[in-house]
Amino acid sequence: MRKNRRTNRGQSRKQFNIADLRNLVIETLEQGQEDAAKVKAEEVDADGFKKIEDEQDHYENLKLKESILLRKHAKLVKEVKRVRAKKEAIKKSILKKLD
After folding, report:
1. What is d(CA 66, CA 30) in angstroms, rounded to the nearest whole number?
2. Is it the case that residue 1 has pLDDT exceeding 90?
3. DSSP annotation string for 25-63
């Protein structure tokens, strides 16, 4: 019979980036400790960080949307140039036929 096990679904682990690790080392050295576990770090309210993370996510989404729109714009500009060139060619041929 299989045992019921609890899994860590929905729980995320904090992943450190280079800046976080650098700050941890700097805090450790500033306090004169050799072991990072002995450092007394100040606690910060997480609500402010949540807002910042939401804004960063929104910024990334807008950046992606901007790149998509710029690609579409470039395609439209090329198409407009082709249409204008064809229009000018037809206009010239009409004027030649009238003369």
Report:
1. 43
2. no
3. HHHHHHTT-SSGGG--PPP--HHHHHHHHHHHHHHHHHH
What is the token pair recorded at 29? 């050295």
And the tokens for 19? 């800046």
The tokens describing 35, both together, are: 């072991």
CA gap 53, 44 in Å, rounded: 15
CB 40 within 8 A of CB 26: no
Distance between CA atoms of 33 and 30, rounded to whole angstroms? 8
Q: Is the pLDDT of residue 13 over 90?
A: no
Residue 39 in contact with residue 28, Cβ under 8 Å?
Answer: yes
Q: Read off the pLDDT of residues 42-88 as tens digits, 9 standing for 90 and up.
A: 776 677 677 888 889 999 999 999 999 999 999 999 999 999 999 99
Q: Which of 54, 25, 53, 50 is nearest to 39 (CA)?
A: 25
Q: Are 25 and 17 in contact (CB under 8 A)?
A: no
